[in-house]
Amino acid sequence: MATQSVGAGKGFAWVLDTLGLIRRHPAQMLGGAGWVLGVTLAVMVAFLVLNVGAMWLAAESPVVSSLIGLLLSLPLMYMFVGLFIGYLRMVHKLDAGEPASATEIFEGMRDVGTNMRAFGVYMLLLVATYLLAGMLVAVLAPDVGRWYLDAMMSSPLEQPAPPPPGFTSGFFKVFPILLALCLFTYAVQGIGVAQVALRDRGVIAAIGDGFMGVVRNLIPLLMFLVAAVILWVVIALGFGIFLALIMALVHFTTQWLLVLAVPLYLLLCGLAIAISYGMGYHLWRDICGGAPAPEVAA
Fold it and tell me: Which residue, 37, 33, 195, 22, is CA-closest to 95?
C-alpha cells in the first residue's frame, strides 16, 4: 500500500513533530536551511541579472523575452528540487535516529537520476496546474484571462493596460478556486517528490501516490493548513513584537533598525525553510507509512 489514511489530528501533529525535530537537532535543521537560503539568494541574484539582460536585449519581442526567462528558470528549479531532496534525506535520517550533517543537503544535487525524476514530477504537476488554471479562468473569468494574456504579451518596457471593468468581481470569483487548486497541487508535489527521494519511485507512480495520498487525507490536510497558518501568525507576531521592543528600549534610528531587521529577516526565512521542509517530510512519513533511511555511500 503506497498511501494510507490518517486521523484528522495528524494535521496538528505534523507541525508539532517538526518543531520537536528542530528543537532536538537545531544545528542540522537550521544549518541545512541556512545552506538552502544562501544558495538560493546567490543563484537568485545571478538569475535576476541574466533575466534583466534578456529583457533588455529582447525588449521589442515579449515572446522571446518570456521564453528566455523560462529557459533561465529551468536550471534554477532543478537546483531547488535537488536541495529539497537532500534536505528530505537529512531529515529522514535524523527522524530515524541516525547521524547527519547540514551539508548533506547537497547530496540530492549529486544524485542526478533521482533529481531528474523528482524534477519531472515537479514540471508535470506545474504544467498540469497551469493548464487547468487557464481553463478555469477562461470559463469563470474570461475578462481576467484576456487582460492577463495581453499584459504578458506586451513589452516589459511598456505600461500595462488598466484592468477591465469586471476585473474585481471576476478575480474574486476565480481566486478561491485557484488557491484550492494550488494547495492541492502543492500537497501532491510534496508527497510525490518525497516518494522519489525516499522510496525511489518513478515519475508517474510518485504523482499517483501523491494524488491518492491527498484525496484520502483531505480533512487532515485541512487541519494541517489551519495549524500552519496559526504557527506563521504566531511567528510573525513574535517577530514584530521583538522589533518593537528593540525600538522602544534602545531607541534605534530608522537606519539602525534596518541594519538589525535584515539579519532577523534572513533568520526568519531560514526558520521558514526548516519548518516548511520538515512539515513536508512528516506529512509524507505518516501518509506513506515511512521508509528506511537511505544508506550513505562509503
Answer: 22
